[in-house]
Write a structure and sequence with these properties.
5 helices, elongated, single chain, 384 residues, alpha+beta
Length: 384
């Protein structure tokens, strides 16, 4: 409407100059529709939505393609949760430990290559139904008679004073071989109880959590005459643990293998007898010079000591942390044994076994001290 008034006002000067006015019909225009307000649904209203704020962007960045910010790198789950280290296997007298858990034995006649941790103390007993060294024939009498007259026992006190996992393990043992002054079948007293003492010394080193090596000697030092006929034995051993599929944290389904060489009592019986004969012949040739030892002429004793090494080995299957099975070659014959840990919370093991299962030199009637039957052996120890 305002536009029309302005147009009419513009025509008045033309009319004043005598120009005729000409009118032209214009199409009517529809009035602009008014604004219509409609209520929004209640869920569409967001009174708590923060207002959007805009910030200027440098012109140099306008034409750059949009890149989503990379999420922060997350460490792998395996790295976040580090796998705990495998506990070290360490040793003892007639048993082993894995970490802080005491386990049954993995050997009976030969030691394992695992050394004891510092501060370890153990005491144990080794028993044999009939001692083949000494001119007796095991198997000619009943079990009770042979055990009473020819049975053998060794009591050992054992301490670890080194650290085989960090540096060097040093194990010291004191043997006591006279466990009774008078035997059951004897009227006259024999050797005094507590006599027959010898020093055992072992040096070991853990190569890893499951593998170890050891060098050592039994009866390295003999403290009295009674101990002379026990002989001295040296050895070198390697032991390893192999997981056969059990859970890594427990001690079930593990295989332990010990291999090495040893001499002394670990030689075949015929070799021991031959060495005794050679020592006696040498002593005669030297006119008794070896008799200068304070206990007199003991050429047979020298034949028991050390000598040539022979292979020894043991294979043990750890069924669980309270029971193991053992097969062992101790240089002169085969042994089979089973080791038990009766109480889960007490580091006490019992290992019965039988030896002389193969009819070799130990069974030869021409060799003094032979056997005609397998012999029973028992070891037991408790550790702290």
């Amino acid at each position: 409407m305002l536009k029309r008034l302005v147009a009419i006002a513009a025509l008045f000067p033309l009319a004043a100059h005598g120009q005729a006015l000409q009118w032209q019909r214009e199409p009517a225009t529809a009035p602009a529709p008014g604004v219509v307000w409609e209520p929004l649904p209640q869920e569409a209203s967001q009174p708590n939505t923060p207002s959007v704020s805009w910030e200027p962007v440098p012109a140099a960045e306008v034409d750059q393609p949009f890149k989503a910010a990379a999420p922060p790198e997350q460490p792998a789950v395996a790295e976040q949760q580090a796998k705990p280290k495998d506990p070290f296997v360490t040793g003892g007298l007639y048993q082993i430990r894995r970490g802080d858990i005491g386990l049954p034995a993995i050997t009976q006649n030969i030691p394992s290559a695992y050394g004891a941790k510092f501060g370890t103390f153990q005491t144990g007993l080794w028993l044999e139904s009939c001692n083949t060294v000494g001119g007796t024939v095991c198997g000619t009498n009943n079990f009770k008679t042979e055990f009473n007259s020819n049975g053998k026992g060794i009591w050992t006190l054992f301490a670890g004073i080194g650290d085989p996992t960090k540096l060097i393990g040093i194990d010291l043992g004191l043997q006591i071989t006279s466990l009774a002054t008078t035997r059951p079948d004897q009227d006259a007293p024999g050797t005094t109880f507590g006599s027959g003492q010898g020093l055992d010394l072992f040096i070991s080193r853990n190569l890893s959590e499951n593998f170890s090596v050891k060098l050592g000697a039994f009866n390295l030092v003999k403290f009295d005459e009674v101990q002379l006929d026990q002989g001295s034995s040296a050895f070198g051993l390697f032991s390893g643990r192999f997981d056969l599929g059990g859970h890594p944290d427990d001690n079930s389904h593990d295989l332990y293998i010990t291999i090495g060489a040893a001499n002394g009592r670990y030689r075949p019986l015929n070799i021991i007898v031959d060495d005794q004969a050679q020592e006696c012949a040498r002593n005669v040739a030297q006119k008794g010079q070896r008799s200068r030892f304070k206990y007199g002429d003991y050429c047979n004793i020298w034949g028991l000591d050390y000598g040539s090494p022979y292979p020894v080995a043991s294979v043990a299957y750890m069924v669980n942390d309270q029971f193991s099975l053992i097969a062992e070659w101790w240089g002169r014959n085969l042994s089979l044994a089973a080791s038990f840990k009766p109480l889960a919370d007490v580091n006490w093991t019992i290992t019965p076994g039988i030896t002389s299962l193969i009819k070799n030199a130990d069974w030869d009637p021409s060799i003094p001290g032979y056997t005609t039957t397998p012999r029973f052996q028992l070891t037991t120890s408790i550790g702290f």
